[in-house]
Design a protein that fits this description.
- The protein is mainly α.
- It has helices at 21-24, 34-64, 69-98, 102-121, 125-153, 159-183, 188-209, 223-234, 237-257, 260-266, 276-305, 308-328, 332-359, 367-396, 400-416.
- The protein folds into two domains: 1-11 and 33-220, Growth Hormone, Chain: A (Up-down Bundle), CATH 1.20.1250.20; 223-424, Growth Hormone, Chain: A, CATH 1.20.1250.20.
- It is globular.
Length: 424
């Protein structure tokens, strides 16, 4: 999985012209029914990422080698994240060259079924790693094309609504994934197939109902030009600090969230009779609801008071406080409080920080390219987070140190916005 900012797909690299279907429509009129389809498509994607990577995969790894589950899970998550990071831009570039999105959405979505079937058959850590890397590859073909739909088909004046539809897929999908993952914790093979079927069904629905026009074929940027663009964007003072702040907070967030099931098993004192899988199924909806509320409120209040840095810094500090709750207490009530406060913090942070970044982009004409650079701050930490987390837990012998270090990273993320000069 690679978090991405809504509306920053590869298609953004081309400015809207009179030949652009999105530009040709009225400013506030995306294609009929497109926004619900975007919500369904993204909800299905995040349900698989949460249910598979967050619950079923962790259970499967534990079943094979309980003594080394933390290090094994970290290895699998880290290696597969590399595949996700590579396949996302590659698939985006290929769909750019074809001028089509629907075939890639459909192909990636349908391929999720055999990929999940193979994952269910894997009975060694090596085979699980290979199968999940394959799953990440096909899912990122699906994700790259789906992300590019917003700039392709939605007029500029309606992209706020489209971004909301895309963004809501995360809390909705996370909740669905946690509930289904817990329901199939004793039969993860069936659970894998169900998640694959959900993505495939969403892909069929999207491509059947979301008609598209063939876009002009776009040549992808050479690797050298992409590296030059990355280095050039980070030379800008304000953009560089925004990039650093995002990377630090995302690193802290995913270092903890990737091990949530194991935290329920080995750190938290659950109520009598409650299984760890059921605990995750309770926590995830709480976090998701809090995230939805704070996303809306954070965006509105930061607009109302015109203070982006204040809200970004406060959200990052709130995330640090949330992480200290389970570090100081192993009780179930502490985890419930963590779920709510962390959801409030992360939802507000992502909403306001994305707005802040759009205000510190080095050049307006390179906005899409530079937002793509920002996505490295989302994807990169997800690659290293599992490795870092597994080392911390293994060395310290528990999860308290992981919470504390993640809190320190959040504080550093809050401090990183202070040097930004052009935004209040």
């Amino acid at each position: 999985m690679a978090l991405s900012s809504p509306g920053t797909g590869t298609a953004d690299a081309t400015s809207a012209t009179s030949a652009d279907p999105a530009a040709a429509r009225p400013e506030s009129a995306p294609a009929r029914g497109l926004l619900p389809l975007l919500l369904v498509g993204n909800t299905a994607m995040y349900s698989l990422y949460t249910g598979v990577a967050g619950i079923l995969l962790a259970l499967q790894v534990e079943h094979i080698d309980p003594a080394n589950k933390v290090s094994n899970f970290g290895l699998i998550a880290g290696v597969s994240a590399i595949f996700a990071t590579v396949f996302n831009p590659v698939a985006g570039a290929l769909s750019d060259r074809s001028g089509r999105r629907n075939p890639w959405i459909l192909g990636g979505g349908l391929a999720a079924v055999p990929a999940m079937f193979l994952l269910g058959l894997a009975d060694t850590i090596l085979l699980i790693t290979i199968a999940w890397c394959l799953g990440q590859a096909v899912m990122n073909v699906y994700q790259a094309a789906l992300t590019s739909v917003v700039p392709d088909r939605v007029p500029v004046g309606a992209r706020g609504k489209a971004s909301a539809a895309v963004g809501l897929g995360l809390p909705f999908g996370s909740t669905l994934g946690a509930l289904l993952g817990a329901a199939f914790s004793d039969d993860y093979r069936t659970g894998y197939l169900l998640f694959g079927a959900i993505v495939a069904g969403a892909a069929v629905l999207f491509t059947a109902c979301g008609r598209e026009q063939r876009l002009p074929v776009r040549a992808p940027l050479p690797v050298r030009a992409q590296l030059a663009a990355f280095a050039g964007a980070l030379k800008d003072h304000d953009f560089r600090w925004a990039f650093i702040g995002r990377a630090l907070l995302v690193l802290g967030y995913f270092a903890v969230s990737g091990y949530q099931l194991y935290i329920m098993q080995d750190h938290t004192r659950l109520p009598e009779g409650m299984e760890p899988e059921a605990a995750v199924a309770i926590l995830m909806p709480l976090t998701s609801v809090a995230m939805v509320v704070s996303t809306v409120l954070g965006g509105y209040l930061s607009d109302r008071f015109d203070r982006r840095k204040l809200f970004v810094g406060a959200s990052a500090l709130l995330s640090a406080l949330a992480l200290l709750i389970p570090a100081l207490s192993t009780s179930w009530s502490a985890m419930l409080a963590f779920a709510v406060v962390n959801g409030l913090a992360f939802g507000s942070y992502m909403a306001v920080d994305t707005a802040l970044v759009t205000m510190v982009l080095p050049k307006a004409e390179d906005a899409a390219r530079d937002m793509g650079v920002l996505n490295i701050a989302n994807a990169g930490p997800q690659i290293v987070a599992p490795f870092i987390a597994s080392v911390i837990v293994s060395v310290s012998g528990g999860y308290t140190a992981l919470f504390v270090i993640a809190a320190v990273l959040s504080v550093a993320g809050a401090l990183a916005v202070k040097p930004i000069r052009s935004v209040r």
